[in-house]
Amino acid sequence: MYTQENGFYIAHGPNGPISILGNMANRHGLIAGATGTGKTVTLQVIAESFCKAGVPCFMADMKGDLSGVSQPGKLSGFIEKRLPEFGIEQESLTFEGCPVRFYDVYGEQGIPMRATIGEMGPDLMGRILGLNDTQTGVLNILYRILDEKGILLDDVKDLRSALDWLSKHAKEYTTQYGNVAPASIGAIQRALLHLENQGADKFFGIPSFDIMDLLATRDGKGILSVLAADKLMLQPKLYSTFLLWLLSELYSTLPEVGDLEKPKLVFFFDEAHMLFEDTSKALTDKIEQVIRLIRSKGVGIFFISQLPTDIPDVILGQLGNRVQHALRAYTPRDQKAVKVAAETFRANPEFKTEEAILELETGEALVSFLDEKGAPSVVERAKVLFPLSQIGAITEGQRLDIMNAAKDISAKYKEVQDRESVFEVFAREAEAEAKAAEEAAAAKEAEKEEKKGKKEKTIWDKVWKAVVTAVTGTLATIVGKSVSDAITGKKSKNTSIKDAAGRTVKNATTAAGRQILRDVLGNVIKGK
Q: What pTM, to 2 d.p., does this model score?
């Protein structure tokens, strides 16, 4: 139990209780050990101690085992055997559960936890999608353009629409941001489709999760937020990136508070090795920065992993409170891990740390917490306390009852919303562009028809002029000759005025035909 003098009572060693000091709980910690050595129970004991002291916690439940923290435990033969070792009287035991909220990224086993693709940022999205540096660079360009345009990026359909838009407008931004290759956009689209097929698209959208809901308390106890991660674990990058996003949101949202008497929130990162697998140096540096600085926001982080070597040295050095369960040295790698784990503790002259790690029984651990000055205490071989809540998974009915009891918070996230974001904005722009293109095409066609009409009118004007010219000239000749014959008394040979007029019209028509042909061929011959 938590007291100001003893801190958070976690284990019992040869010299009595071993506790995490309240003002040192935000200095982070490590729970390590082979499978089946008691890591999950240790996590439950620590979380339960924080809860009773009014400190809320967040933890991922890989196999459903941690759900039992919501129900009262019961006396067992194992616990009964441990009571004398801890100096606890059976009559003083009060088994009870902790206030719990169940969460689930997929919304199946708890309250939905969503984030927008915009909030994730290009680097984290690139990690989820498994992109290389070049493809992640294209995402960075896309995010920058959307930020400048003030357009929100919420869900999968938004990102797909934005990528399609970028492929059509890439040349406009090449000079400013660099080349955007169609192959990179295609690779991102394929990765996005793969992620969507796995159901991860349910995670992206609004309302996005309000990080402040993790800091809730009830009746003086900290609420334990338990994330159902059995399905999420099938996508390791989504799991680890999601938890990293939560940490980043906590860091960017919470104010600076320094070292408090007890932390505002404790964050448990199970299967921590996934956070660092296939992670670029830039992202690893960011993780290290968040872990190092978030303690000033009153947040403590506990990493849970099989081997301390799963965690980079620069981050391992930030983990001052440590519980090391047994390790197995079956291979050279295991032997090296045992040696590394032993060297991370402050040596105890009463036993050899490296040998003790191999000899520890289930529920037993090597424990070293930070002292009042922030220095690691001498490592002790101790037995971890038993939890007062249930060990093991709860039934579906019990889970459903807890979910129904949290209607106030679940109603906040139940219904997926669809506000105006990239998809709607670009769809409207595409519609406007299509309409403008249609209007431009219609105007061009009308202009074409108008030019055609003018050209035809010009041709027929020429025809008419040619006909008139031909007829007028011929008639003038005939009339002139007739007048001359009348004056001189001569008579026209083998013709008459009527016959001449007929030939004139025929000649004129022929001339007009030739004129049309010449105009069409663009080779107009000027006549007299």
A: 0.80
